[in-house]
Design goal:
The complex is a heterodimer. By secondary structure, chain A is an all-alpha fold. Helices cover about 80% and strands about 0% of the residues of chain A. Chain A has helices spanning about 10-20, 25-50, 55-80, 80-105, 115-130, 135-155, 160-165, 170-180, 180-200, 210-240, 245-265, 270-295, 295-315, 320-350. In chain A, helix 6 (about 135-155) runs parallel beside helix 9, helix 7 (about 160-165) packs across helix 10 (about 210-240) and helix 10 packs antiparallel against helix 11. In chain B, about 25% of the residues lie in helices and about 40% in strands. Chain B has 2 helices and 11 strands, in the order H-E-E-E-E-E-E-E-E-E-H-E-E. Chain B has helices spanning about 1-30, 130-140; strands at about 30-40, 45-50, 50-55, 60, 70-80, 80-90, 95-100, 105-110, 120-125, 145-150, 155-160. In chain B, the strands form 2 sheets. In chain B, strands 1, 2, 3, 8, 9, 10 and 11 form a 7-stranded antiparallel β-sheet that branches. A 4-stranded mixed β-sheet of chain B has the order 4-6-5-7, with no helix packed on it. The longest helix of chain B has 28 residues, at about 1-30. Chain B starts with a helix and ends in a 6-residue tail after the last strand. The interface of A and B includes residues 103, 109, 122 and 126 of A.
Amino acid sequence: MAAGLIDTATADAIRAHEAAARTPWGRWAVIALGLLAVALGIALVVAANWWTIPSAFKIAVHLALTVAAAVTVYRADQHEWFWTREGALFLFAALVLGGIALQAQIFQLVGESWRMLCFWLVMTAPALLLIGRSRLNGYALALMAGWTALAVGTGDASDLGRGVALSVPVILIALSHAASSDFGRGLREAGLTFLLAGASLAHIAWSVSIDAGEAAAARPSLAIGAALSFMALALLRLTRDPVARVVVPIGCAAIVAVVLALWIPHDGEWPSRLLGAIIYAGLWGVIGWVAFRSGWTGLFGVAVAALAARLFIVYFEIFASLAMTGAGLIGAGLLLIVLVAIWRRVIVKVKGV
Amino acid sequence: MKRRWMALALTLPIAGLLASVLWHGWQIRSASEWRIPVAGYDPRDLLAGHYAQFRFGWRVGGRPQLCSSGDCAFCLEKREGAVVANVVPRDADCDNKVDPRKSDISIVWPGETSASGLVAASRIYIPEGEAERVTRVLASGRGVLVARLGKDRRLSAVRIDELDGAIR
């Protein structure tokens, strides 16, 4: 108004419109805080009297809540209420997990957690795969599958169980093809993260001693895991999914890196560490190259960061005398600078900026 | 067609939970009850979180050395009012067999020199209001574990009572 752009009547009309449309955020925030306090209070009162509530009542209430969540999912899907369905589905999956934990408490079930997690996965994965459309549920399924795989891999499971656990990241990536929504993208992102993080961590095995007996014990599960992973990648390749052009070579490189690290006996001394570092560099080199060729700049950046992190670790590996530490710092620092310079050039070339 | 599959996928976990409740309920009904003397496992920290740790005060028989490789199980029997845990190979068959892995029992193997000193320890979930009483009972060495032994060889801890003279 002072600048002479609008007159008084227009300014008043704008003020009236803004006042009518204004959301009372402050009031809502206080109400939300109050509701949160009430909900937490109810939870604490229930928790304090938990042992005086009869077990049958607890199980009945829990089952009723689970059925209510399932009905909500079904109804929301009928009416195409996207977030109601996704939220109720997430709650349903969480309630099933809670139900298993409740039974473990009531019946004093003890033992290895992987059995409980496998039960949840077998029971709930079909519903999530069939109904889920959001990243929320994609990540939920992927995280639970990853947790189960970790529990099976480190637990008292058979070679077959460990082999299946090893192939979980690639199976998640292959399943992402079947669900072409955000749910599928969530599965793929989580599967790739598990695969690359797992393959990178596996190279630490080159720094410890693995004798012939330990290597022989690991081979059956490694062979099963690698075979299942290659089969899942082959299926993905057959579908002509454009993502397969990136995922298949990356997956193959990661599987080879994991198998080499645990299949071949080694003593953990410097020649074996050097071989491990070369395999790691080869893995991330393949990933970087494939990402660069496909224009996946984000993944290319991750590959450069992974290589840079490994170069930095070289400094710690040769940390011995003052001279060696100095040489390590100089070498790692120069390599880092060269790497960043190459990365910058590549990004400029890909983005054309 | 899709709706039918969806309904089936949503019913599966509910049916699974219900079946699991019925299965465990049946296991408990058909389980035998055992009263086994117990004492606190670690005098510095009897309660770890909501769990009370204890060691079994049963008499050890059989072949305790089998436990050195972790490949052992216990066959429980009541002899002269006391509970005796006979150590057998894990795949052996006997009445009242307890599988340590299924029953969350950890075995501390003291070595060849003191085979009879085999220590079997476990834990039980304790409600907040019970913590003080259970700590006192376990510290006094007069604790008795009331447990159920199911057909699946799982020894499930139910509660900790105070020794009433029935078991010595």
